[in-house]
Design goal:
CATH architecture of the largest domain: Ribbon
CATH class of the largest domain: Mainly Beta
Order of helices and strands: HHHEEHEEEEEH
Radius of gyration: 42 Å
CATH topology of the largest domain: Umud Fragment, subunit A
């Protein structure tokens, strides 16, 4: 009977996979004969019951102990998985923000940034400011671009931010835009054609584009 109970107990701990638990139960079993001189009148059946009771108590205690360890280990794993999941979410969020920032500075969205590279608009936009421009479809330029607005337009191989100060019309009734930098004493020498207008200035942030100005100057010197 004792052997049967012992095998059941050992099998239970083997299923749990606790080597320490098996070792402790084995020690209890093999040291149990040392109690016989203390209890010389105990019959074999009684000693078997006592031994089985000791094993049962040992199993109960160690089961709770190992369950607590397993729960603690499981909690650590869950915290680790939650931390890892949070890390993945943070990584995905960071990558998404980076991609959106690249797309924004590449001019993918209806609003895009322009760095002021000169002092021609000083008093309104200082050199190094970043101006947010609303993209203007060609079919809306005639109706939305008005005198006094600051526009972003192409001229040759460069683009500029200047203010519309007047209009002219060609013989076929195409509108030409007379522009001038706020810090310039005269108007620009060449009127801006409608198809060259890219957008209208909406807001700006001073100074934060100055690193681009510095790098641009270094690059041009080379």
């Amino acid at each position: 009977m004792f052997s049967i109970v012992y095998n059941v107990v050992i099998s239970g701990f083997a299923v749990k996979g606790s080597f320490v638990s098996q070792l402790i139960v084995g020690i209890v079993y093999f040291l149990s004969p040392l109690f016989l001189p203390v209890l010389p009148n105990v019959q074999n059946i009684t000693w078997s019951l006592v031994s089985c009771g000791l094993l049962f108590l040992s199993w109960t205690f160690l089961s709770r102990f190992t369950d607590n360890i397993d729960k603690s280990h499981s909690n650590r794993i869950k915290r680790g998985l939650r931390y890892r999941r949070n890390n993945y979410l943070s990584l995905v969020f960071s990558v998404a923000i980076l991609v959106l920032a690249i797309m924004f500075f590449r001019g993918v969205f209806p609003y895009y940034p322009i760095t002021v590279m000169s002092n021609s608009m000083s008093g309104t936009f200082e050199r190094g400011a970043i101006v947010i421009v609303r993209r203007m479809p060609q079919e809306q330029v005639f109706f939305e671009v008005e005198q006094g607005q600051v526009i972003h337009f192409n001229y040759g191989n460069a683009s500029y931010l200047h203010r519309v100060v007047d209009f002219r019309y060609t013989h076929d009734r195409q509108r030409l835009y007379i522009t001038q930098g706020d810090a310039n004493p005269t108007v620009d020498s060449t009127p801006v054609q409608q198809q060259d207008i890219l957008g209208i200035s909406k807001s700006f942030f001073p100074h934060i584009g100055y690193p681009k100005v510095v790098f641009h100057r270094i690059f041009n010197r080379r």
